[in-house]
Structures are given as structure tokens and as C-alpha cells.
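Pipeline run #58 for the internal structure catalog. This entry was flagged by the ingest filter as a single-chain record with no existing model, so it goes straight to prediction. Upstream metadata was stripped on purpose; only the residue string is passed forward. Reviewer on rotation: M.T. Logging verbosity set to normal.
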Amino acid sequence: MPQFLFVYHGGHTPTDPAEIEATMAAWGAWFENMGAAVDIPGNPVGQSYTVSANGVASDGGANPASGFTVVTADTIEAATDMAKGCPMVVNGSGSVEVAEIHPIEM
């Protein structure tokens, strides 16, 4: 079954204890709802750098990543349906980029 990369953009890190608890509960419920489809839960990420032939830019580019997850789904449509439940999408604070992972035999 194909794997898909979820790249999170946006969102924010909660600082208030009640907000932290609510945020963790929302993410936990979403992951629980996806169940065995979650192959690699992933994590939030720090400041991103863009490396190109012109050098290294520390601004994270036009839409810097804020985290990632790897899921298994039958189709990209099924994966995008899963992504619609992401807490950042539901609360309007961010988005999820969905891309199929193409395995390469070495």
C-alpha cells in the first residue's frame, strides 16, 4: 500500500498549559482516528533552511515546514481526506501538503 508524506505548514506552539493540553488532545485524537494508517507519527520541526545552488537561505522559504507525518493509504484522495482532520486544518491555523512517497530500490 502506498505511503504519503504529510508536511505541515503554519500553526503555532502553544504556551498556556490549558492550550497545550487541548492541542495535544486534538492531535492525539486525530492520530487515534487514523489508527494503523500512521506509519511514522513524525514531529514538529524547528527553523528550516533552504539549500540551493545559490547557497543557503535561513528564512525557510515561502512556506516553511512546521512538521511531518508518514501515513499509508490506498490513494492520494484517501490520504488527503485523512489530512482534512489535521487539527491545524480544522482550526484554520495551518495547512497540510500531501505527497506520495515513491520507493526506490537501491
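catalog note: The longest strand covers residues 3-10.
catalog note: The chain has a mean pLDDT of 94.
status: ready for reviewer M.T.
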